Amino acid sequence: MSTLRGRGTVQGLPEWDRCAVMGVVNVTPDSFSDGGRWFDTTAAIKHGLDLVAQGADLIDVGGESTRPGASRVDASEELRRVVPVVRGLAAEGVTVSVDTMRAGVAEEAVAAGAVLVNDVSGGLADPAMVGVVADAGVPFVVMHWRGFSESMNSRAVYEDVVAEVVRELRERMDAVVADGVHPERIVIDPGLGFAKDAAHDLTLVAHLDDLHALGRPLLVAASRKRFLGHVLAGEGAPPPARERDAATAAISALSAHAGAWAVRVHEVRATADAVRVARAVEGAA
């Protein structure tokens, strides 16, 4: 592990001297945050390049919505959405991650140039996923997950959310390593918003330091999520997802200060500024 706030490095990926910024490109018609704005391949590639120009260090391309209650897209459609975008961005020299729960999509995306697999199920949704990642020798994001979008809200039951998330992530990490993924290629993600209510998410953000006990770099994906809408709502209605970017940047700054390896965001510029300020403060301490 790095001595820089426990941030760590991931074998097979560039090293940054601060919290990295992962920009999101949703190639879906039904994303909770940007609802089909980048569904066209050309538009999605351009958006990814724009995010890099705004300060993103890597781009996460996904073709299936994982918002609460979302139905799954079929594999052929997910491939059709994702692979051309991954190929186009990789051809431009972008560090590309693929956001998928399917082994076949991960395999095709890596062949097209993706260098990181970000599986919100941590390899649980598709039994073939861990083997594909191990064979490809690429880094793997293991997120805390308790089930598919249709049923995740009913699974948000904890006695001690921090302790249980840490324990379940440790168990999943051990299983992934046992199935052949090199431990130095694992990134962990507490899964904010997945089988968690707003109070659970806020508690996890307040205790990000506890996740360093797992010994692997930490990805925090809070961008535009429901718990931020809950915080901002006060006594009124939550603001729409695209009006939560300032709140997202606040979480990015807190995450960077807590030693996160990367933050995953839809709107890059404010977060890119936030993590650079956090790094400057670290350097001045």
What does this structure look like?
- By secondary structure, this protein is α/β, with parallel strands linked by helices.
- Strands 6-5-4-3-2-1-8-7 form an 8-stranded parallel beta sheet.
- It has helices at 41-53, 75-91, 103-112, 129-136, 161-178, 198-206, 208-211, 226-233, 245-257, 268-284; strands spanning 20-26, 58-62, 96-99, 116-119, 140-143, 186-189, 219-220, 262-265.
- The two termini are 20 Å apart.
What topology emerges from the helices and strands here?
Layout: E1 20-26, H1 41-53, E2 58-62, H2 75-91, E3 96-99, H3 103-112, E4 116-119, H4 129-136, E5 140-143, H5 161-178, E6 186-189, H6 198-206, H7 208-211, E7 219-220, H8 226-233, H9 245-257, E8 262-265, H10 268-284
Parallel strand pairs: 1-2, 1-8, 2-3, 3-4, 4-5, 5-6, 7-8
Helix pairs in contact: 1-2, 2-3, 3-4, 6-8, 9-10
What attributes characterize this protein structure?
single chain, 285 residues, eight-stranded parallel beta sheet, 10 helices, 8 strands, 12% strand
Which shape, going by the Cα principal axes?
globular
> Mind summarizing the main beta sheet?
8 strands, parallel
Stretches where pLDDT is under 50 for at least 5 consecutive residues are none
Q: What proportion strand?
A: 5-15%
Mean pLDDT: 91
What count of helical segments does DSSP give?
A: 10
Fraction of residues in helices? 40-55%
Structural Rg: 17 Å
| CA(first)-CA(last) distance | 20 Å
Derived structural class: alpha/beta
